[in-house]
Amino acid sequence: MSPRAAWRLESLGFREVYEYRPGKADWLAAGLPTEGTGSRKPRALRYIARDVPTCRPGERVADAARRAAAAGWDLCLVTNKTGILLGRLDQKQLRGDGAQLVEGAMRPGPSTYRPDVPATELRHLMGHRGIGKLPVTTGDGRLLGVVCRDALDDLDDEVDADGSPRPSEGVRR
Amino acid sequence: MPTHIERERLTDLVKTGAQLVEVLPAEEYAEEHLPGAINIPLREIDREAPERLDRNAPVIVYCWDFT
């Protein structure tokens, strides 16, 4: 749609026309502010825990396990040097052979969600599938953090059935 | 030929006075849009753009994604 609009503007005599082709989806996925009636809808972004431990594929599992334990997590996410999420080590892998390299032990290609997903949708999904912790990434795969199921428990008190915040309730940031 | 830009460039252009236009239908715009964007639905471009936009200032258009 935007390509047609851009071309049309040029034909109407507008001299400097740009097209933001990644569009609103990209903007929302980056967790940037918006305006409009739905802009205060609680989204995954608000519930992200950013202190989740990470490790590199070339590290030993024992090192990742120590880091996770020290941070109080039963999960360690595997990223490359640019922050792209490659895999995850859950309890089972963290308790496995400590001498093994992370790249051989990790669960590759984990399911991820974008920060613009409505929090109510995320809670439903996590409850339905029995997921405790879900990584959240940008559209290009960069890790933002993890949403923990427990963090979504108070959603009922804050939103109406359509996922919009109740007028009398403030939205925490 | 329209220039394709990414998020960072968009932010810079808006700071320097570019006009930001969402070309999705009015209902979608009303629900959520980029800060400072105005709405000119694609089908209204011919009629509304000359009235509401400055031909001499940069214009950035966007919709939902690249489709």
Task: Provide structural commentary.
- The complex is a heterodimer of chains A (173) and B (67).
- Chain A has 173 residues and is of the alpha+beta class.
- Chain A has a domain at 38-157: CBS-domain (Roll), CATH 3.10.580.
- In chain A, 27% of the residues lie in helices and 17% in strands.
- In chain A, strand 4 (76-79) and strand 5 form a beta hairpin.
- The radius of gyration of chain A is 20 Å and the shape is elongated.
- Chain B has one domain (7-62): Rhodanese-like domain (Oxidized Rhodanese, domain 1).
- Chain B has helices at residues 7-15, 26-31, 45-52; strands at residues 3-4, 19-22, 38-39, 59-62.
- Chains A and B meet through helix 1, strand 1 and helix 2 of A and strand 1, helix 1, helix 2, helix 3 and strand 4 of B.
| C-alpha Rg of chain A (nearest Å) | 20 Å
Low-confidence stretches of chain A: 166-173
Describe the global form of chain B.
globular
Specify the CATH homologous superfamily of chain B.
Rhodanese-like domain
What's the multimeric state? heterodimer
Q: Mind telling me which CATH architecture of chain B this is?
A: 3-Layer(aba) Sandwich
Q: List segments of chain B where confidence is low: pLDDT < 50 over at least 5 consecutive residues.
A: none
What is the helix content of chain A?
25-40%
User: How far is the first residue's CA from the last residue's CA of chain B?
Assistant: 18 Å
Q: Determine the strand fraction of chain A and express it as a percent band.
A: 15-25%
